[in-house]
Amino acid sequence: MAAPAHKTINDLSGKWVMNKSLSDDPVPLLGIQGMPYLMRKAISLAPGGMTLTITQTPSPTNANDRTQTRLVTDQAAPGGIMKGNTDERILDWEYREKKVPMFGEIKTRTRFVGMQDLAGEQKEWLKEGGWLAEEEAGVWRGVQSEVVNEAKGWVAEQIWGFQEVNGQRYHVRRAEARKGKEIQRARLVYDYVP
Question: Are 134 and 141 in contact (CB under 8 A)?
Answer without folding.
Answer: yes
